[in-house]
Amino acid sequence: MSSLDNAKSVVLELVKEYLTKKTFFSIREIISYINNRVRYNPNINENRIELILKDLIKKRVIIPGTRLMKNNIIEHPKRNEIYNYIKKNPSNINEIMRALNMGSNQALWHLSCLEKFLFLRSKKINNHRIFFKFDSNPELDELYYYLKKKIVQKIINFMKKENKTLKITEIANSLKKNHSTIKKYIDILADLKLIKIEKIKNRIVFQLDTKSYSKVRKSIQGVLN
């Protein structure tokens, strides 16, 4: 192990030690604490401590103002549950609360922690804040979010099976869903270029664009069942 790696390891362990005693920390306080603890170590001085701490903060391993550290964020059972759920199901706060039987304050607190430490990220879609796994592809967010919805999969599967142009009423009646609900998701799928719109005898009809849908499925392989 190089002297720099060794210094990082020592500093990180002392950060952990410090945070067991303090609820919050400031950079100056923790530098002073670590510097005092390593005063006999010739490879670590105050400048190096500061550089290492700045690197840890940049990587969100530690965040000033909280005693939490990245390595113990998902050790909390509720945060772990939220993280694992969102990995498979990008969701808004209400969907998370319903799925995991969780109150709003509790959910918001854990989501905030997961975002701060770069386990999750969020994006506004259709006036809702949607949470995604941090390292998922942002360019696929809307596809990922909507295609995981059961109602969207029902619409797609029905249109795929019928393999013809359909009116919204036909889809709604066959799926036994409200007309406005079906129209909402048909419009979304059209915006995502997954449905083709045609006008036949003054009537608007829709058909699944099977080529586009097949391409999308490949691009987000593992997302859809």
Low-pLDDT stretches = none
Number of domains: 3
Q: What string gives the helices and strands in order?
A: HHHHEHHEEHHHHEEH
Kindly name the structural category: mainly alpha
* Structure summary, number of beta strands: 5
The value of Rg in angstroms is 25 Å
Q: Specify the overall morphology.
A: elongated
Strand content: 5-15%
And the CATH topology of the largest domain? Arc Repressor Mutant, subunit A
**Largest beta-sheet details:** 3 strands, antiparallel
CATH class of the largest domain: Mainly Alpha
Spatial gap, N to C terminus: 44 Å
Number of helices: 11
- CATH-wise, what's the superfamily of the largest domain? Winged helix-like DNA-binding domain superfamily/Winged helix DNA-binding domain
Give me the CATH architecture of the largest domain, please.
Orthogonal Bundle
Average pLDDT works out at 89
Identify the strand order in the major beta sheet.
1-3-2
